[in-house]
Structures are given as C-alpha cells and as structure tokens.
Q: What sequence folds into this?
C-alpha cells in the first residue's frame, strides 16, 4: 500500500491537497453568494449588492460576523457530542472529495519528473469510498440533533437520518449501474471509460445510456444533502432550524460549510459518473479541469434553481416517493443495465 | 511504518471496544462502537483489502449503527443503572455467575489458541488477489461459496419476515 515517493512529488501532492481544500472552502463561499443572488433574481429582488462587487464579498463578511459571535451551548446538552457533531459533518464533507479526479496528469510545466494525477488519491474502490463517507456524514446531523437536548433538534436529526437511510439505497443502486457499465470502481477509470464519441458528435458520456440513472442519482443526491425540496431536517415552519437550532457562531458556520461542500462533492461525483468528468471538446488535454468546473457549476446551478422553484414536500410524501417510486425505479434501472451489458458486452 | 499504523489502529479498536461496555451512556457506546469499526476498516486497508474496509464502513459503521442510534434516540435511554463492582456482587445471582464462568472459559480459549498459533505464521500469496479485487470476491461468492451465500440470504429474509410479523399490530 505504502509507496515512498520522491520528495518533489510529495511536495506537489501536499500542494494539491492544500489547493483543493481551499478551493472547496472558496466554492462554498461562492455557492452561498450564488444561492442568494439566484434566489433574489427568482424572487425579483436584487440580493446582496453592498459588500464587494455585486455583493461578492458578502459570504466573507458573514463568516467574519459569525466568528465574532458568542458560542452558546444549552445547559442540558451533551458537551462532548455537541462539540463533535459539526466536526464530523465538516470532515465527512471534505473527505469525500479526496477521491474525485478533476483532470488528467500534470508535471506542473516540467517541474516534476513523474506526472501526478489531478486528484488527491486514486483509490481502486473510489465510488464506494464516496458512498461510505457520505453515510458517515449522517452522524454529524444525528449527533447534533441528539446532543442539543432540544425537541426541535431531535426531530430534525431523526428526520434526517430516516431520510438519508431511505435515499441511500436508491443512490447506491444508481451507482451500481454505472459501475457495471464501466467495469471499474475507480472514478478515474470510469471517467476514462467515457472518452470518445458516438457517430463523431455525441460524447460517450454515461448520461445518455444511463439517463434514468442520472435522474435517480441527482434526486437521491438532493435528498442526501438535505436540500430543498427535500430539506426536512430543517423545515423552518415546523422545526425552527432543525438539527442546528441550538448551534451558534462558528459551529453553526461549520454545518453551513458542510452543507455546501457536500453539494459540491455530489455534483463533482455526478460529473465524473455521468458527464465524462474532465473530458470535453475544444480544449487541450491539460485544460480538462476547465470542463470539469463548467459541468460541476451547471449541476450546482440546477440545485440552486430547483431549491427556489419547488416547494417542500410533505414528510410522508417524501418517504412514499423514496420507497415506492425511486427505489423500484433504481432496481429496474439496475436490471435493465445488467441485461444490456450482458447483451451488448 | 505499517507496523506503527497497525498498532495505532489496533489500540484504537481495542480501547474503543472496551469503553463500549465500560461506560454507561448508551449514546457514547454507539459512537465508540463506530470508532472501533472505523479502526477495523483501517486494519483491513493495511491487509491490502480496501474493498472489505469500505464495505465494513458502509454496512456496519454506516447502515447498522445508524439503526442503533435511531433506537437509542427514540427510546431516549438516559444512562444505565450503575453496576455494583464488588466481587461478591459479580458472583451474586445465577445469571452473573454464568457470565463470569463464560468469560473465564473464553479467556482460556483465547490464550490456548494464541499459544498454538505462535509458531505457525500466516500463509501468504495465493489468497491475496481474491480478497482485494471485487471481481475475485464476486466470483468466489457465486461459485465456491454459492450455497453458504444463498443460505445466509434466506436466513436474513426469514429474520426480516419474523420482525415484520412481531412488529405488526393485530388487525381486528
């Protein structure tokens, strides 16, 4: 397992980790801004437009404000778990991105002897790693709900765990269909498997043969990240703020950060699985990450667009939809894919 | 390097498992059990079995423990009653006496097994690909171990039907 790499490569890897970490934090800030702007335009308002150009520095102002707020903890809360919960959420959100590839190999313009892939680590079970880490993220929310010792938080936490268990199944089955088509569990190999075109024009991305799988994956992904129209864990009208009702200051900000980083990760995984990752026409190979960013941005925009367009479901509708429609659809998709793979080869 | 990592994960797994039973708060027990599973997954990675490690996380730490948490949260058990820790209490009622007897037997068995194993060492080589590659595991499961695999799935189905029957309210 352990490979001892030359030091320049190690430095490059560390630099890559540093860059990716900060890009994720920045992308979360960007998403907060985008969300407020898009929401404002959908509702015929201007949105934040005072701090920086068109309010682009608003997220940073918000973070600084939150940093200076007092950290509160309910008296009856479980101190240790209350502090642990936001850490679990954030760590899980960041960790999942470590196996996502976002470009081909690079030598940093000839600085390195051996090229390094644009990815923190290429695990041969990457798809499952993403799945496992996502399921670990549930604990942050559940613990926050329980440790706060507040009824709203507890209900929010319970709802969230029930919802995530229900939608994880469909999510996993949609993944399985892609894994069968690619014959590999490594995200890098799955992306490479999508290179080339049909009839010279249509890219061989899995979104075409796996269109229903893509829809199932996106729907389950929205439910997994607790976004509207499935944002029950924090349904304001019923639960105040759900699992993070009792959180303030930076620990609240960490939940907020985790939510947006999770969105970015789900979009990045969807891009790798269905939209051909960094592959795309017109650009040279080493600029593949531009295509990756464009695709991830489109999915993220879709997320935001949907949140401010669709009303929230009712909880029983959510469960009914998840178990009685989405799961059977995912099973059928899996069987049809398996048959096609056997038939066509 | 590998040895150091092994001892770190091993220590975490053993300590976490000990504290699962040693401390009284059920919620903390669940979290410690998850920690222990995580450390085990780390050990699997060291054994070059990343697939087993990830399934360990997905199934045990991810799915099963969420259900545990659910039960603990819904019942909202505050704390277990403090146990009497004197020797006379341990040897008191029949149930506990049996527990002590069984743990002594288990301890003897473990020591005996370990002492027999010391010189033997583990075989290396041929079995390695079958634990690390997903295709290898799938092939083994559906050919050599097909009967055990299917029998297990039927057992789980029986357990599921049983749970549904027990949980269902009597219809008038």
A:
């Amino acid at each position: 397992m352990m490979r001892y790499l030359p030091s320049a490569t190690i430095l490059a890897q560390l630099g890559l980790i540093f860059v990716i970490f900060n890009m994720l934090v920045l992308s979360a800030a960007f998403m907060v801004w985008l969300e407020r702007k898009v929401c404002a335009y959908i509702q015929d308002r201007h949105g934040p437009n005072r701090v920086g150009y068109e309010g682009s520095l608003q997220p940073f102002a918000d973070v600084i404000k939150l940093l200076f707020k007092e950290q509160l903890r309910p008296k009856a809360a479980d101190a240790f778990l209350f502090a642990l919960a936001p850490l679990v959420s954030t760590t899980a959100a960041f960790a999942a991105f470590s196996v996502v590839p976002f470009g081909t190999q690079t030598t940093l313009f000839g600085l390195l002897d051996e090229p390094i892939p644009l990815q923190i680590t290429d695990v041969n079970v990457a798809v499952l790693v993403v799945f496992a880490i996502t399921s670990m993220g549930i604990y942050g929310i559940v613990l926050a709900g329980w440790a706060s010792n507040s009824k709203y938080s507890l209900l929010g936490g319970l709802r969230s765990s029930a919802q995530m268990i229900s939608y994880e199944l469909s999510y996993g089955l949609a993944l399985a269909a892609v894994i069968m088509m690619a014959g590999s569990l490594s995200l890098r190999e799955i992306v490479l498997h999508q290179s080339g075109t049909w009839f010279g024009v249509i890219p061989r991305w899995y979104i075409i043969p796996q269109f229903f799988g893509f829809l199932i994956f996106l729907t389950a992904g929205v439910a997994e990240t607790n976004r509207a129209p499935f944002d029950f864990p924090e349904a304001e009208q019923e639960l105040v703020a759900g699992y993070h009702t009792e959180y303030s200051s930076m620990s609240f900000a960490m939940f907020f950060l985790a939510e947006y980083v999770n969105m970015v990760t789900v979009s990045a995984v969807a891009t790798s699985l269905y939209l051909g990752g960094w592959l795309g026409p017109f650009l040279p190979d080493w600029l593949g990450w531009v295509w990756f960013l464009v695709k991830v941005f489109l999915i993220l925009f879709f997320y935001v667009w949907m949140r401010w367009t669709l009303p929230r479901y009712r909880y029983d509708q959510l469960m009914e939809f998840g178990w009685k429609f989405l799961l059977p659809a995912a099973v059928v998709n899996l069987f049809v894919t398996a048959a096609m793979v056997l038939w066509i080869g | 390097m590998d040895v150091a990592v092994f001892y770190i994960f091993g220590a975490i797994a053993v300590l976490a498992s000990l504290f699962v039973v040693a401390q009284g708060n059920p919620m903390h027990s669940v979290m410690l059990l998850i920690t222990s599973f995580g450390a085990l997954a780390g050990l699997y990675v060291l054994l070059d079995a990343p697939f087993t490690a990830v399934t360990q996380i997905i199934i045990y730490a991810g799915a099963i423990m969420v259900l545990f948490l659910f039960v603990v949260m819904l019942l909202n058990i505050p704390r277990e009653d403090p146990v009497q820790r004197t020797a006379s209490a341990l040897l008191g009622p029949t149930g506990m006496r049996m527990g002590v007897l069984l743990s002594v037997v288990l301890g003897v068995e473990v020591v005996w097994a370990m002492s027999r194993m010391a010189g033997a060492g583990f075989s290396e080589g041929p079995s390695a690909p079958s634990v690390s590659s997903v295709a290898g595991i799938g092939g083994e499961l559906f050919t050599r171990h097909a009967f055990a695999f299917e029998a297990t799935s039927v057992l789980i189905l029986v357990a599921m039907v049983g749970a549904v029957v027990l949980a269902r309210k009597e219809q008038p």
